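Example A, followed by Example B.
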Amino acid sequence: MPVPRPRALPLSQEASGVALALVAVALFASMDAMSKGLSQRYDPFMVTWARYLSQAVLVVLILSPRIRTLGRTRYPLIQLVRSALIFGATLCFFVAVAHVPLANATAVFEVAPLMITALAALILKEQVGPRRWAGVAAGFVGAMIVIRPGLSVFQPMAVLPMLAAFCYALHAIATRFLGRDENPWTTFLYSGAIGAICASFLVPFHWSTPTIEDALLMTLCGAVGGTGQLLLILAFARASAATLAPTTYFGLLMATMWGYVFFGDAPDLWTVLGAAVIVGSGLYVWWRDQTRPPARSPGPLP
């Protein structure tokens, strides 16, 4: 008599959200590795254009039956600002990885969650206690350990991931103003379209005709980034932002691996130490945020 095979238990909503977020983060790290390789042969402005153009095409293919409906937004100015900010973050990061190791750039960019905490206190007037402020300060110390300003190993381009993190943090704050009543697919549509438009204005000044192989790689880079954003939207539909927040640090592990495999960049002791301080600070601030009493968050702008 055959023994019945046990049926796999379905993943809970939150567990499936975490799984989707981890895949999204891995895709973003892969996109960054491709952009670094391409930026060694082409201007980073051109790589950014290819990334957003490919995402715009992906958006049209996925959302074409509903584009007219999803294009309507109650907050056009906020959608424009937040899309421009995420475009700026991408451009700064792509320019940075053309000059600094992938792991270093990613480690510095990981201060973004700490910047969100600081900006939420300054702009949204959220309550941030002294312990969380100490965690934010420690994270910035970690970034300085990686960047090492004033020393012979310092590169000015190493500051760009910090600027990218600042743009990303402002983008996250702007997204909070949209409220839950804005369709996330509308946000996805605006991010791809506005990024492609901004990049198209810049790319003629930085154009060089790619080979067929590199054109395909540029297309793949954009498709991977767009797919990552799509999976992240699905993840947030299944799990809370607080649950998904720590998954971002998986990207640092992936970036370190791709940097070593494809570019031979092994992080030095100071980079590892700085990254550990940044990740530890971020996890501490996240833990403190989970244990504090819930506070009312501001709704969308009138």
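Example B, a separate protein, is given below in the same form.
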Amino acid sequence: MSEQFPLISGHPSIDLVNTEVVRRGVRHDLLVTESDLKHWLTTMQETGNLIGIQIDDKWCSDTLHCVRELRTFLRNGFEQIAGKQSLESNWQLHLEEIIQRAPFSYKIVRGNLIPVPIGIPTDALASLVAYNALQLFASNALFNLHHCTNPDCVLLFLDKSGRRKWCSMKICGNRTKVARHQSLRGKM
């Protein structure tokens, strides 16, 4: 798999939404195939952001459609929040219903108490991502959600300071600074 996932938030719900990117002015979906989903799950587990999901080729085909639907739902809500708009009234309820399909047990992993969903793998993955989104919502962390200021970027990020402009310096910040520098040099 050659695609790199922009894991810039440390939160599965935001990182899932950020599996849609813009490159050279064209929007790309990084979760097109079952292999893409498996790679994203593996990457998320390696970073410690999704623990407790057993990756199995057999369920990835069923799960891909579910994950993409959840991503669309979350993107709509997150973009409303980042745009300082009110969430639709059913947003919280819908996420709570997803969690009910795979409720949690808990384990201590690396010194942290983490939720481990009980249910079929597709529901378990959706439950963990929905739980993360609800945690961010309940803690008011989503009020620190922003769009990247690069107009060609669709990535979202959390910023408590209110000073951050770009999704990341590596992805958009350096590109913007280089473009601005080249533009200024061209005018001299």
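On Example B: The longest strand covers residues 104-109.
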